Amino acid sequence: MGKAFILNAQEGRHPKPYNVLGMPVYLKVSANDTGGQMSIFIAEYKRNEGPPLHLHDNDEAFYIIEGEFILQAGDEKFTGYAGDTIFIPRNMPHTTLTVSETGKMLFTVNPSGNVEKIFEKLDSYKEMPSIEEIVRVHEELGLKIVGPPLHL
After folding, report:
1. Three-state secondary structure call for residue 86
2. What is the structure's pLDDT at 1?
3. Nearest-CA neighbor of 92 among 138, 61, 136?
4. Which residues constitute the domain of residue 86?
5. Nearest 5°: CA angle at 106, between 105 and 109?
6. Mean pLDDT value of segment 20-29
7. CATH at residue 32
8. Structural contact between residues 44 and 144, judged by C-beta atoms closer than 8 angstroms
9. pLDDT tens-digit profile of 25-78?
């Protein structure tokens, strides 16, 4: 059994937030903490930011802490606001787009899978990698990019 802990708002299980395609992502609960069952992250976004359309073999739940987002799951699009919760089942293509000037979301990945490894790899680049490199890294670690990010 793991050890209980508390982290303040700017702390994470990784020494600093991951830089994931320009967005700071804090690892709050790691795969190591949960025996690989779950990872919890908090991400901070600016207007018009969000990941490319992607899918993975992990369930994902989002809780909007602040801001307004468009979320796409499969062919459906939703507008989410602070306090809203969104669930995306595994292997469903999905993405998010920040509509407000800034936004913040907590998201969980169950089981943890390779999401932490992808964030570590993306954080290691000194410059924004090409879309080809982003696709390659995701595929190498078992996730798949299936379309571009949303735009306003």
Report:
1. strand
2. 59
3. 61
4. 18-147
5. 125
6. 95
7. 2.60.120.10
8. no
9. 999 999 999 999 999 999 999 999 999 999 999 999 999 999 999 999 999 999
